[in-house]
Design a protein that fits this description.
There is one protein chain. The protein is of the alpha+beta class. Among the domains are: 1-34, no CATH class; 115-146. The protein has helices spanning 22-32, 42-52, 59-69, 83-94, 100-110, 129-135, 138-145, and strands at 7-12, 15-20, 117-119, 126-128. The protein has a two-stranded antiparallel ribbon with strand order 1-2. Strands 3-4 form a two-stranded antiparallel ribbon. The longest helix has 12 residues, at 83-94. 1% of the residues are buried. The structure holds zinc ion (ZN). Zinc ion (ZN) is lined by residues 120, 122-123, 125, 136, 140.
Length: 146
Amino acid sequence: MLDLKSVFIYNNSKGGGIVFSKEVREKMSKAKLGKTRPPITEETRKRMSKAKLGKTYSAESRKRMSEGMKGRIPWNVGKSYSDETKQKMSDAKKGISWDAESIKKRADSNRGKKRETTICPHCNKEGGKAAMIRWHNENCKKLIES
Ligand SMILES: [Zn+2]
């Protein structure tokens, strides 16, 4: 029943949404005719009433809500995902996976920037790890002793 010709998709400052053409709205309305909702029990009625108590909106915000909701269909209407798809979406958010290209780029950007430094316990000089091992630490100790 839904095809692109009968649906108008819009995007504006308020957001985006789908507006059904008059024809589609009539079809949907006809489809609902003859279907009856189960009667609402007294208990449910009381619960619904209680839930709304104390909630008031100004006339202006009520108007805005009304305008904003007109013709809008929530993004998730009619969408359903299999458990497998849901799992995949969940996994995708748990950690960004890097492809080889991204890893290389990251490595290149770090090259020459990040060097591990250590401090020589004998002369308190700080330097790159490799240089410190070569010239300081045990060697520095010997130099100082000699
Ligand atoms: Zn040293």
